[in-house]
Design brief:
Helix content: 10-25%
Protein name: Oxidoreductase molybdopterin-binding domain-containing protein
CATH class: Alpha Beta
Radius of gyration: 18 Å
Organism: uncultured Thermomicrobiales bacterium
CATH superfamily: Oxidoreductase, molybdopterin-binding domain
Shape: globular
Largest sheet: 6 strands, mixed
Pfam families: Oxidored_molyb
Structural class: alpha+beta
InterPro entries: Mopterin_OxRdtase_euk, OxRdtase_Mopterin-bd_dom, OxRdtase_Mopterin-bd_sf
Domain Oxidoreductase molybdopterin-binding: 37-183
Order of helices and strands: HHEEEHEEHEEHEEEE
Number of strands: 11
Protein backbone atom coordinates (compact mmCIF):
# COMPACT_ATOMS: atom_id res chain seq x y z
CA UNK A 1 0.00 0.00 0.00
CA UNK A 2 2.69 2.46 1.01
CA UNK A 3 4.73 1.82 -2.12
CA UNK A 4 1.74 2.34 -4.43
CA UNK A 5 0.59 5.51 -2.72
CA UNK A 6 4.07 7.05 -2.99
CA UNK A 7 4.46 5.99 -6.62
CA UNK A 8 7.46 3.80 -5.75
CA UNK A 9 8.29 0.32 -6.92
CA UNK A 10 8.71 -2.48 -4.42
CA UNK A 11 12.37 -3.38 -3.90
CA UNK A 12 13.49 -6.37 -5.90
CA UNK A 13 14.69 -9.37 -3.91
CA UNK A 14 17.43 -11.49 -5.45
CA UNK A 15 15.77 -14.92 -5.86
CA UNK A 16 19.02 -16.74 -5.17
CA UNK A 17 19.57 -14.88 -1.88
CA UNK A 18 15.97 -15.41 -0.87
CA UNK A 19 16.37 -19.12 -1.52
CA UNK A 20 19.45 -19.26 0.72
CA UNK A 21 17.89 -17.31 3.58
CA UNK A 22 15.88 -19.36 6.12
CA UNK A 23 12.46 -18.08 7.23
CA UNK A 24 12.53 -15.28 9.78
CA UNK A 25 16.10 -14.23 8.95
CA UNK A 26 17.53 -10.98 7.54
CA UNK A 27 20.84 -10.65 5.74
CA UNK A 28 23.82 -8.78 7.14
CA UNK A 29 27.24 -7.97 5.69
CA UNK A 30 28.66 -7.47 9.18
CA UNK A 31 29.54 -10.31 11.52
CA UNK A 32 27.80 -9.57 14.83
CA UNK A 33 29.56 -10.65 18.03
CA UNK A 34 27.43 -12.76 20.35
CA UNK A 35 28.56 -15.11 23.09
CA UNK A 36 28.07 -16.03 26.73
CA UNK A 37 30.74 -15.01 29.23
CA UNK A 38 34.12 -13.38 28.78
CA UNK A 39 36.60 -13.96 25.97
CA UNK A 40 39.12 -16.48 27.37
CA UNK A 41 42.84 -15.84 27.34
CA UNK A 42 44.86 -18.03 24.98
CA UNK A 43 48.19 -19.52 26.05
CA UNK A 44 49.76 -21.69 23.31
CA UNK A 45 51.97 -23.43 25.88
CA UNK A 46 49.02 -24.83 27.85
CA UNK A 47 46.27 -25.02 25.22
CA UNK A 48 45.15 -28.50 24.19
CA UNK A 49 42.36 -30.19 22.24
CA UNK A 50 40.87 -33.51 23.40
CA UNK A 51 38.95 -36.17 21.48
CA UNK A 52 37.33 -38.65 23.86
CA UNK A 53 34.27 -40.69 24.79
CA UNK A 54 32.96 -43.64 22.76
CA UNK A 55 36.09 -43.97 20.61
CA UNK A 56 38.83 -46.52 20.03
CA UNK A 57 41.61 -44.01 20.67
CA UNK A 58 41.36 -40.95 22.87
CA UNK A 59 43.46 -38.16 21.41
CA UNK A 60 45.07 -35.03 22.77
CA UNK A 61 46.70 -32.36 20.59
CA UNK A 62 48.79 -29.48 21.81
CA UNK A 63 48.66 -26.22 19.83
CA UNK A 64 51.53 -27.09 17.51
CA UNK A 65 50.13 -30.54 16.75
CA UNK A 66 46.62 -29.23 16.10
CA UNK A 67 47.90 -26.59 13.68
CA UNK A 68 49.81 -29.29 11.82
CA UNK A 69 46.70 -31.42 11.13
CA UNK A 70 45.52 -31.58 7.51
CA UNK A 71 43.18 -28.72 6.69
CA UNK A 72 40.12 -28.32 4.56
CA UNK A 73 38.10 -25.33 3.37
CA UNK A 74 34.34 -24.87 3.47
CA UNK A 75 32.23 -22.21 1.78
CA UNK A 76 29.03 -21.85 3.79
CA UNK A 77 26.35 -19.51 5.11
CA UNK A 78 25.83 -18.77 8.81
CA UNK A 79 22.43 -18.31 10.44
CA UNK A 80 22.05 -16.94 13.98
CA UNK A 81 19.04 -17.62 16.18
CA UNK A 82 18.83 -13.84 16.77
CA UNK A 83 17.61 -13.67 13.15
CA UNK A 84 20.63 -12.52 11.16
CA UNK A 85 22.24 -14.50 8.36
CA UNK A 86 25.71 -13.90 6.94
CA UNK A 87 26.18 -15.53 3.55
CA UNK A 88 29.30 -16.68 1.69
CA UNK A 89 31.73 -17.37 4.52
CA UNK A 90 35.00 -19.11 3.70
CA UNK A 91 36.30 -21.26 6.56
CA UNK A 92 39.62 -23.07 6.87
CA UNK A 93 40.31 -25.70 9.47
CA UNK A 94 40.28 -29.36 10.45
CA UNK A 95 37.30 -31.37 9.26
CA UNK A 96 35.10 -33.00 11.87
CA UNK A 97 35.01 -36.16 9.81
CA UNK A 98 38.82 -36.46 9.89
CA UNK A 99 38.86 -36.07 13.67
CA UNK A 100 36.24 -38.81 14.00
CA UNK A 101 38.26 -41.11 11.73
CA UNK A 102 41.50 -40.49 13.64
CA UNK A 103 39.84 -41.39 16.95
CA UNK A 104 38.03 -44.44 15.57
CA UNK A 105 34.46 -43.70 16.62
CA UNK A 106 32.75 -46.83 17.91
CA UNK A 107 29.44 -48.05 16.46
CA UNK A 108 27.62 -47.20 19.71
CA UNK A 109 28.31 -43.47 19.29
CA UNK A 110 25.32 -41.42 18.14
CA UNK A 111 25.98 -37.88 19.39
CA UNK A 112 28.80 -35.42 20.05
CA UNK A 113 29.29 -32.65 22.58
CA UNK A 114 31.73 -29.80 22.02
CA UNK A 115 33.57 -28.67 25.15
CA UNK A 116 34.79 -25.07 25.25
CA UNK A 117 36.64 -22.68 27.52
CA UNK A 118 34.45 -21.32 30.30
CA UNK A 119 32.46 -24.55 30.60
CA UNK A 120 30.31 -23.88 27.53
CA UNK A 121 29.04 -26.93 25.65
CA UNK A 122 27.00 -27.57 22.49
CA UNK A 123 25.58 -30.85 21.20
CA UNK A 124 24.68 -32.26 17.78
CA UNK A 125 23.96 -35.74 16.38
CA UNK A 126 26.97 -37.65 15.08
CA UNK A 127 25.33 -37.79 11.64
CA UNK A 128 25.40 -33.98 11.52
CA UNK A 129 28.98 -33.81 12.82
CA UNK A 130 30.18 -36.15 10.07
CA UNK A 131 28.74 -33.97 7.30
CA UNK A 132 31.45 -32.70 4.95
CA UNK A 133 30.84 -29.03 5.82
CA UNK A 134 31.54 -29.33 9.57
CA UNK A 135 35.03 -28.31 10.68
CA UNK A 136 37.10 -26.91 13.51
CA UNK A 137 37.91 -23.54 12.02
CA UNK A 138 41.12 -21.58 12.48
CA UNK A 139 40.49 -19.02 9.74
CA UNK A 140 37.55 -17.05 8.35
CA UNK A 141 37.70 -15.41 4.92
CA UNK A 142 41.45 -15.99 4.76
CA UNK A 143 42.30 -14.40 8.12
CA UNK A 144 43.03 -16.00 11.47
CA UNK A 145 39.96 -15.90 13.71
CA UNK A 146 39.77 -12.92 16.04
CA UNK A 147 39.35 -13.55 19.78
CA UNK A 148 35.73 -12.35 19.77
CA UNK A 149 34.91 -14.86 17.03
CA UNK A 150 36.49 -17.84 18.74
CA UNK A 151 40.28 -17.69 18.33
CA UNK A 152 42.13 -19.96 18.30
CA UNK A 153 39.53 -22.59 17.26
CA UNK A 154 35.77 -22.65 16.85
CA UNK A 155 33.59 -25.40 15.46
CA UNK A 156 31.45 -24.54 12.43
CA UNK A 157 28.15 -26.37 11.85
CA UNK A 158 26.59 -24.50 8.90
CA UNK A 159 23.29 -26.41 8.77
CA UNK A 160 22.37 -25.47 12.34
CA UNK A 161 21.77 -22.16 14.10
CA UNK A 162 24.96 -20.40 15.11
CA UNK A 163 25.01 -21.33 18.79
CA UNK A 164 25.93 -24.88 17.73
CA UNK A 165 29.08 -23.39 16.10
CA UNK A 166 30.73 -23.03 19.48
CA UNK A 167 33.65 -20.68 20.05
CA UNK A 168 36.92 -21.40 21.90
CA UNK A 169 36.41 -25.13 21.51
CA UNK A 170 38.82 -27.36 23.41
CA UNK A 171 37.49 -30.82 22.67
CA UNK A 172 34.84 -33.09 21.26
CA UNK A 173 33.22 -35.95 23.17
CA UNK A 174 31.45 -38.83 21.41
CA UNK A 175 28.39 -40.20 23.20
CA UNK A 176 26.00 -43.13 22.91
CA UNK A 177 23.13 -40.99 24.26
CA UNK A 178 22.37 -37.33 23.74
CA UNK A 179 23.37 -34.75 26.34
CA UNK A 180 22.02 -31.21 26.14
CA UNK A 181 24.45 -28.35 25.74
CA UNK A 182 24.50 -24.98 27.52
CA UNK A 183 21.72 -23.19 25.62
CA UNK A 184 19.61 -26.32 25.23
CA UNK A 185 19.38 -26.52 29.03
CA UNK A 186 17.97 -22.98 28.97
CA UNK A 187 15.16 -23.84 26.59
CA UNK A 188 16.69 -23.55 23.15
CA UNK A 189 15.87 -26.17 20.55
CA UNK A 190 17.96 -29.33 20.66
CA UNK A 191 17.94 -29.76 16.88
CA UNK A 192 18.31 -26.05 15.89
CA UNK A 193 17.43 -26.41 12.20
CA UNK A 194 17.14 -22.84 10.79
CA UNK A 195 15.04 -23.97 7.82
CA UNK A 196 12.40 -25.25 10.25
CA UNK A 197 12.83 -22.25 12.58
CA UNK A 198 13.70 -24.57 15.45
CA UNK A 199 14.70 -21.80 17.84
CA UNK A 200 13.19 -22.89 21.13
CA UNK A 201 12.25 -26.25 22.62
CA UNK A 202 8.59 -25.32 23.15
CA UNK A 203 7.98 -24.20 19.55
Amino acid sequence: MVFRSMGLKRPQVDPELAERTPPGQHLTRRWPVLHYGDIPAFDPTTWDFRVFGVVERELRYDWAAFQALPRTTVHADMHCVTRWSKLDNDWEGVSGRSVAEAAGVRPAARFVVFHCDGGYTANIPLAVFEDDDVLFALKHDGAVLTPEHGYPVRVVVPKRYGWKSAKWVRGVEFLAEDRQGFWERYGYSNSADPWREERFADE
